[in-house]
Amino acid sequence: MKKQHISHSQNTAQLEAKISALEATLLEKEAVISEKDSAIQKLNQDVEHLAFHNDQMRRLIFGSKRERFIPQVHPDQLTLSFEEEVAAVSKAVKEEQEKIRVEYERRKIRKEHPGRMLLPDHLPVNEIILKPDQDTTGMTCIGQEVTEELDYTPARLFKNRYIRYKFIAKEDEKADQKQVIAPLNRPLHKCIASANLLAMIFTNKYLYHLPVYRTRQMLIQMGVTIPDSTLESWIKLGANLLRPLYAVHRIHVFREIYQMIDESPIKVQDRNKKGTCHQGYMWVRYAPLSKSVLFEYYKSRSANGPIDDLSSFRGFVQTDGYSGYTFLAKKAGLTHLSCWAHARRYFDAALKNDQERASHMLSLIQLLYAIEAIARDQNLSHEQRHALRLEKALPVINEIGAYINEHKGSVMPRSPLGKAFEYCKNRWTSLQNYLTNGMLEIDSNLVENSIRPLALGRKNYLFAGSHDAAKNIAMFYSFFGTCKKLGIDPQKWLKYVMENIHITPAENFKELLPQFIDKSLLQE
């Protein structure tokens, strides 16, 4: 019996050992399977991530640049769980949203075709009388039929010959006799170009983005050949002439209480980098209250240099989501505003990834813009716009915040929608700050619009010839951008400035700036 008991114990121990070995093997296989599942899940996420970025790149290259969002409503579509939760939002907020939608999506009256465009009355008229080829002897004229066409006279060059008479007093017969002669005020000393011609050269280069050689070809067609080196010299001297005015312009833009800031790259030739171009940056400010544009060239994208002057700034600064701006929120006396247009782009990019939730967020953001459209259409004052935003926009923003907090845990952080939620969450305070004052804008699109000439210019001249040339680009883009915002003809403004800058005291340079100049002085 004792032997049988020992044998049974041995068998039990062997079985337990085999079971333990099998369990260990199963655990190892489960760990391997779990590791493979994790690897597969990670690969799927990577594939989805790469597919998203590939889709975004194809959209940038081939797709439309418009960001219009049209909500897609499917009456027969089943309601998802998160939609049921959204439907539980307070009834009062929904009613307010519907009122905003109805007012914003008002029907547009279809206008009849206005017919042929009427030509302006201020244009000179060249009358051409046409008589029938037939013999009209003995016939009675019963009226006229008048047809107008818009004609064009090619540009032409001509010479201004200044003849100045010199006088001396009759009693002065000494060698050091004093002569009396009319002063000659010209933009550039010992330069044959007039202010009008120089203004044309500068507007061709910095407003219409024409390389200098194209302007030279235009002049040749008009009968005068000017060497490239001479044109380049005129551009350099003209830029130096306007440099003090640019410094005054910068001072006044920096004094604005509300500024928008953005940056954009520009390639610059550098003697120290053979075979390649230096990557510089144009930092752009826009002051919405005075409609002033300021470009500044810096060799780096680092935010420390361009906004060091904000150390003593007191007011509002609006930017995009660039991480270099994050420290602005911590500066005393400075209110940092983020851009709802950039936030909207993240949700627009997430539409294919999560149609339902991204569409819901875009619909809410669309309501915020509908409120802005109402304020703009009704030409509300800053105080009225502030009150309208607190009444209509604040509840919508609160709903956006609640929706983000409710759903951010149910999406992958690396997914497009997860990134959109994270973008808004990290900038939530600065996204709401536009509600604090009616003079503030919901986004920084105005400064983005000011950068467009730089993007057009880069396609034409490809790069700046030097760091000094990049600074000249910044200066003229600042002047011409401000003229455009204020509805001023840049060439007329520049002509007037170049004719008067020598006779204007430095303390009165402000009166030459586009945002302060008397527009009646620019009328010819």
TrEMBL record:
It comes from the Bacteria. Residues 53-128 form the Transposase TnpC homeodomain domain. Residues 478-514 form the Transposase IS66 C-terminal domain. Residues 190-471 form the Transposase IS66 central domain. This is Transposase.
